[in-house]
Automatic annotation (TrEMBL):
<dbReference type="InterPro" id="IPR014284">
    <property type="entry name" value="RNA_pol_sigma-70_dom"/>
</dbReference>
<comment type="similarity">
    <text>Belongs to the sigma-70 factor family. ECF subfamily.</text>
</comment>
<dbReference type="InterPro" id="IPR013324">
    <property type="entry name" value="RNA_pol_sigma_r3/r4-like"/>
</dbReference>
<protein>
    <submittedName>
        <fullName>RNA polymerase sigma factor</fullName>
    </submittedName>
</protein>
<keyword id="KW-0805">Transcription regulation</keyword>
<dbReference type="InterPro" id="IPR036388">
    <property type="entry name" value="WH-like_DNA-bd_sf"/>
</dbReference>
<dbReference type="Pfam" id="PF04542">
    <property type="entry name" value="Sigma70_r2"/>
</dbReference>
<dbReference type="InterPro" id="IPR007627">
    <property type="entry name" value="RNA_pol_sigma70_r2"/>
</dbReference>
<dbReference type="InterPro" id="IPR039425">
    <property type="entry name" value="RNA_pol_sigma-70-like"/>
</dbReference>
<keyword id="KW-0731">Sigma factor</keyword>
<dbReference type="Pfam" id="PF08281">
    <property type="entry name" value="Sigma70_r4_2"/>
</dbReference>
<feature type="domain" description="RNA polymerase sigma-70 region 2">
    <location>
        <begin position="31"/>
        <end position="96"/>
    </location>
</feature>
<dbReference type="InterPro" id="IPR013249">
    <property type="entry name" value="RNA_pol_sigma70_r4_t2"/>
</dbReference>
<keyword id="KW-0804">Transcription</keyword>
<dbReference type="InterPro" id="IPR013325">
    <property type="entry name" value="RNA_pol_sigma_r2"/>
</dbReference>
<feature type="domain" description="RNA polymerase sigma factor 70 region 4 type 2">
    <location>
        <begin position="133"/>
        <end position="183"/>
    </location>
</feature>
């Protein structure tokens, strides 16, 4: 019975990504079924255009197919969200070039004129992807970046971040403090007058 239970155990994210890296479309489909739902919800909170959300979600899993081998193991939630958030920023930049008057990406809130308005989080996300802040962010380790994105950009609680990244809550707190210190230090070298995290300690 124990052997049968072990045989029937569902593969974890790391195992699925290893299989995707070897070219398994079935593993990619399983990852999609496991993660597409929450990714769609979170993307929809940032973008009011359902078509853009669908395209970004599709692009996210195309990226997973191409770069699964770069995943470092463990739960894939944080890694997937980083990919999806970057794809959303890219989509927003592309749409802005086509139609500069349309603010993108957008939150579900709307402006007084009834048009979707970009949220503060979207502006922070764009800042973290490009320019001096993006360069500074690239200088800190991936595990610290993931925590910073989840807690600062996504506004997740410590518990939510722990679930998303598959790490203990205490680790989230420790990494968040380290991430802020390291980001400030890196940014101070690049742009001494810029403070990406405002008054957050």
């Amino acid at each position: 019975m124990v052997e049968a239970a072990e045989t029937a155990r569902a593969p974890d994210d790391a195992e699925l990504l290893q299989a995707v890296a070897r070219g398994s479309a079935d593993a990619l489909a399983t990852l999609y079924d496991r993660h597409a739902g929450w990714l769609h919800i979170r993307l929809s909170r940032r973008c009011a255009d359902p078509e853009t959300v669908r395209e970004v979600l599709q692009d996210t899993f195309v990226t997973v197919w191409r770069s699964a081998g770069s995943h470092r193991g463990g739960a894939a939630g944080g890694w997937l969200w980083v990919i999806a958030a970057r794809r959303l920023v890219d989509a927003g930049r592309a749409r802005a070039k086509e139609c500069p008057a349309v603010p993108t990406p957008v939150d579900t809130e709307t402006s007084y004129a009834g048009e979707p308005a970009p949220s503060a989080e979207d502006r922070v996300l764009a800042g973290l992807e490009y320019g001096d802040v993006g360069a500074a962010l690239d200088r800190i380790s991936p595990e610290l970046r993931d925590v910073l994105r989840a807690t600062v950009i996504d506004g997740l609680t410590t518990r939510e971040t722990a679930r998303l990244l598959g790490i203990p809550e205490g680790t989230v707190k420790t990494r968040a403090l380290r991430a802020r210190r390291e980001l400030r230090a890196a940014l101070a070298q690049l742009a001494p007058d810029t403070n990406p995290l405002g008054g957050i300690a």
